[in-house]
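Dear support,

Our group has been running a series of protein-ligand predictions, and this particular one with adenosine-5-diphosphoribose is the one our PI (initials K.S.) wants archived with full inputs and outputs. We had some confusion internally about which version of the output was final, so please treat the block below as the authoritative record. The input we submitted was:
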Amino acid sequence: MPRPKISIMGAGNVGATTAHWIASKEIGDVVLLDVIEGMPQGKGLDLLEAAPVEGFDVDIKGTNNYEDTKNSDIIVITSGVPRKPGMSRDDLISINTKIVKEVTQNAVKYSPNSIIIVVTNPLDAMVFVASKVSNFPKHRVLGMAGILDSTRFRTFIAKELDVSVEDVDAIVLGGHGDSMVPLPRYSTVNGIPITELMPHDKINLLVERTRKGGEEIVNLLKTGSAFYAPGAAVAEMVEAILKDKKRILPCAAYCNSEYNVNGYFVGVPIKLGKKGVEKVIELKLTDEEKAAFQKSVEHVKSLVEATEKFL
Ligand code: APR
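Confirmed final output from the archive:
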């Protein structure tokens, strides 16, 4: 049986790190594509040469040519520019809309049956762009954000309570920006809601740190944005799809009526399996959570509108 094929558009920090996680978990063959000549080939070969030490039997190839991505099962789009200190994700909209449009057009020509996972920011708007340009069924286009936001929240919860990260789960809804909505009521330590384990003001501090989690890394790095945790999050999505695991994960998915969102991609819990987004899971929200979610969705709508003049 041929191994699944994953093509990663953009071989920069997030793209290359995603390739690393995918290879080390032996999920499938990887193609790394970039506009920069030599760079994806160099990173691809370097990673391949780690295989005997790590013992992963997958092929890894770097390229500047879309033909090499032919018949991919999954296309991951990381191409674009990352933010620098002082920039919000939204500041990237004009340049990244054009890049995501071009990359999607080329990628879908060679892989018309693939599932697209978008990582480029501003995330929720870039998923919309990839969906519009590819014209794929909506369940085959989604974005990586919720797993990253929730893994940050989980990290902070585990540190605060001094418990294993293995036991901590969390859900973050909404757009991938400062208005995201971490949900403490649905965030648990081995089934125990964190609202039972921590005072309210402590939870609020962790929620705020989660909302600003990307900015915290940008300010430390100064030259770009996060890549280890984003790469790991993408690999988790790719594995869920290719192994038809039917994981329940927060991702940017198309909502048609769910959560009263009509026609936008926003962060919601979904069932992720071989068909892509197999179901959007609707949680019961309090009035306060609903209001915060609605505010986040309004922000996503304004970003989507802003992409239109570059499409
Ligand atoms: N086609 C292919 N690759 C492109 C194109 C294009 N048209 N334009 C840019 N790229 C490549 C760049 O050459 C670069 O190697 O995309 C890569 C982006 O890598 P980085 O600059 O290292 O950025 P990274 O940190 O990986 O972030 C990429 O993901 O998390 C988001 O906000 C982040 O939007 C950003 C994206």
